[in-house]
Amino acid sequence: MSVFSNSSFSEHELVAFHNDNRSGLKAIIAVHSSTLGPSVGGCRMYPYASEEDALHDVLRLSRGMTYKSALAGLPFGGGKSIIIGDPRKQKTRALLEAMGDFVHSLGGRYITAEDVGTGVADIRAIAQRTPYVTGLEDTQHGGDPSPSTALGVFLGIRAAVRHRYGKDSLNGLTISIQGLGHVGYRLARLLIEDGATVYGADINAANLELAVEELGVRPAASDEVLFLPVDVVAPCAMGAVWNRRSIAKLRAGIICGAANNQLATREDGDRLSQLDVLYCPDFLVNAGGIIEAHHQRQDSSESVRLTHIKRIETILAEVLKLSCERQVSSESVAEAMAEDILRGKEGVNHSIAA
Ligand code: NAI
User: Fold this and answer.
1) Average pLDDT of the chain?
2) Ligand 1 atom 9: the closest Cα is on which residue?
3) pLDDT digits (tens, 9 = 90+) for 212-269
4) SS3 for 25?
5) Does residue 321 carry a catalytic annotation?
6) Centre of ligand 1 from the C-alpha of residue 68, in Å
7) Per-domain residue ranges for the chain?
8) Strands 77-84 and 39-40
9) Most-buried pick from 12, 55, 157, 189 (CB within 10 A)?
10) pLDDT, tens digit, for every residue of 72-107?
11) May I ask the CATH architecture of the domain 14-126?
12) Cβ neighbours for 205, distance < 8 A, ≥ 6 positions apart
């Protein structure tokens, strides 16, 4: 398995591997950048098909976290961790504590949180062995990030709809959501409250049923939900959903969802741009959760938090405008903005620091 020559390696500062025979833990932590502060990013547990897949995922996810925190004006770098395994079968207390020891061994260069396959209870177990965690239900560690993540994505959808249709409300629009978990469910509620008709799918039947019964989401098939003839499609499950084949089947004009790393490759961003699909970079619109975590740790007021999360709408509007003017993908524009911030050239025409 190559690391430095891996296609997702992007001058990462540190990649650490850990094997704990006693608990069965096999994990990787990747610190992409600590230029702006300690690296922060969730801990994903997933039954990766291969170790290469796991490495590829953690490298891409940690890089996305660098851009996310930079664009959000946060004093954090980008990092991520993954545990190789099925969270429904292999997650044990001993494994989580061993993960806590692994996180602790980096001495604070990486701060962990929930992600796909891990929840607040798991992070609490990790926190038994290290203080380097966030996303717990207390002011010391921050709170559940999902409601704020959903709010950020909702604001992103509003900015994209305003850009494309000149409308301030979602009334009468149709939106499909892939994945009705922590973020997708809350996003559906915000969209419906704003007058949109929401279609949703989830491979977990219980999650779909809840959204249908409690919110009035219209059920869709999991393999069709990304390709419905709707105004907006919101991927809120796993990443890499947009590739040559899926883009060919796309019928929505706007993509805006929470899932990290939605583009399988950089070329897929160019493809969407050439098809005049408004793609809202995931690392920009899903930053609400990390912004919330930051302000909970600071004990900021509700209005300070909300004002900061609302910047997502303003920054996305700027990204979409520049993307149209320059005829380059929105992903490239957002990455260039983040890199300017990392190089200390922030605020040329987009003052976004908190
Ligand atoms: P979650 O695990 O609570 O929900 C994901 C849902 O997607 C689950 O209900 C799952 O059954 C469903 N799902 C998985 N594969 C699917 C498929 N092929 N078709 C339909 N449904 C499928 O995760 P959460 O927290 O809602 O996060 C969703 C996405 O947003 C993830 O990619 C995560 O990395 C990203 N994200 C989440 C943040 C948060 O605050 N929770 C923050 C930033 C990004």
Assistant:
1) 92
2) 181
3) 999 999 999 999 999 999 999 999 998 899 999 999 999 999 999 999 999 999 899 9
4) strand
5) no
6) 17
7) 14-126, 146-343
8) parallel
9) 157
10) 999 999 999 999 999 999 999 999 999 999 999 999
11) 3-Layer(aba) Sandwich (3.40)
12) none
Atom 14 of ligand 1, residue of closest alpha carbon: 237
Q: State both tokens at 57.
A: 């995922």
CA–centroid distance, residue 262 to ligand 1 (Å): 12
Q: Do domains 14-126 and 146-343 have the same CATH topology?
A: yes
From the CB of 69, is ligand 1 less than 6 Å away?
Answer: no
**Active-site residue (options: 26, 80, 167, 345):** 80
What is d(CA 238, CA 178) in angstroms, rounded to the nearest whole number? 9
**Quick one: tokens of 175?**
């939106």
- Return the closest-CA partner of residue 208 out of 197, 196, 198, 195: 198
Say if domain 146-343 classifies as CATH 3.40.50.720: yes
Name the residue type at position 293: A
Residue 347 confidence (pLDDT) above 70: no
Q: How far is the CA of 259 from the centre of ligand 1 (A)?
A: 6
- Cβ 260 under 6 angstroms from ligand 1: yes
Segment 284-327, tens digit of pLDDT = 999 999 999 888 878 889 999 999 999 999 999 999 999 999 99
Tokens of 18: 């850990």
